Amino acid sequence: MPPVRTRITVALVSAAAIGLELALMRAFSLRFWHHFAYMVISVALLGFGASGTAISFLRRRIARAPRAWFCASAVLFSASIPASLRLCESVKVNVRFLAWAPGEMWGVAAVEAAALVPFFFAAVCIGIALSDEPSHTPGHYAANLAGSGAGAVAALALMWRISTAGLFTAFAAAALAAALISLPWRRIGSVAIAAAGAAALVAVTVLVPGEIEPSQYKMLSYLENMPGTRTLFTAEGPLGRIDAAANPASIMRRA
């Protein structure tokens, strides 16, 4: 595989993976409660561990065409980010009933499975790169470390400027750029790749929801569903999100 392009791809994939982890922590905290934010770390590690198992089982096939598998995993990583978020949003889980409603655990398992997929493909991409020629491995590993650090810093900086849903769009775009860089341009053609990239970016923008909606079981959702509720103020940053809302009924009760 071309060393320079491979390292750029690995750096972008690593940055997008770390940024996605922080974005998921924020999204789960907003939608459910902070307990689910901690779960993201184990889900990401599980995805990376599963990728190692998959690479081990498929090592002979990967060895025949490593660049094809490398490019495919980068493309699938980009596509799986908005798809995973949509699946997580579609699962209904009442966290407060977990202690006495075992059926709710299936919803938690579904959320974990959906969140695991992007990390799996990101780790497959990085793992294939690290299985390259021994002389190239140190540079690939350095790109992985540099990209991971840059992704963490970028995620924190973006939290001051864009919404939580916007974070997913940004990191899906970074993963898409990595996928386009990894493709063999001479075989496919620059025009075809540019057109595919533009179409994929539009699809990512459409698939990612405009806002992360809190669970219907959270107090904020109850308040927003009450007639006459007005949202007075909303702000987001690295430390969290603040929502201020007012309802005539609650004002009368306080008076």
What would a concise description of this structure say?
The protein has 255 residues and is mainly alpha-helical. The protein has helices spanning 3-31, 34-57, 59-64, 66-90, 104-130, 137-159, 164-182, 185-188, 190-207, 219-225, 248-254; strands at 230-237, 240-246.
List keywords for this structure.
255 residues; mainly alpha; 2 domains; single chain; Growth Hormone, Chain: A; 2 strands
Say what the CATH topology of the largest domain is: Growth Hormone, Chain: A
Instruction: Compute the number of structural domains.
Output: 2
Proportion in helices:
over 70%
Distance between the termini: 71 Å
Question: Roughly how many Å is the radius of gyration?
Answer: 20 Å
Q: Roughly what fraction of the amino acids lie in strands?
A: 5-15%
Report on this structure.
By secondary structure, the chain is mainly alpha-helical. It has two domains: 3-207, Growth Hormone, Chain: A, CATH 1.20.1250; 219-254, no CATH class. It is built from eleven helices and two strands. The protein has helices at 3-31, 34-57, 59-64, 66-90, 104-130, 137-159, 164-182, 185-188, 190-207, 219-225, 248-254; strands at residues 230-237, 240-246. It has a two-stranded antiparallel ribbon with strand order 1-2. A hairpin with a 2-residue loop joins strand 1 and strand 2 (240-246). Helix 4 runs antiparallel to helix 7. The radius of gyration is 20 Å and the shape is elongated. 36% of the residues are buried. Mean pLDDT is 78; it is low at 251-255.
Topology:
Elements: H1 3-31, H2 34-57, H3 59-64, H4 66-90, H5 104-130, H6 137-159, H7 164-182, H8 185-188, H9 190-207, H10 219-225, E1 230-237, E2 240-246, H11 248-254
Helix pairs in contact: 1-2, 1-5, 1-6, 1-7, 2-5, 4-5, 4-7, 4-9, 7-9
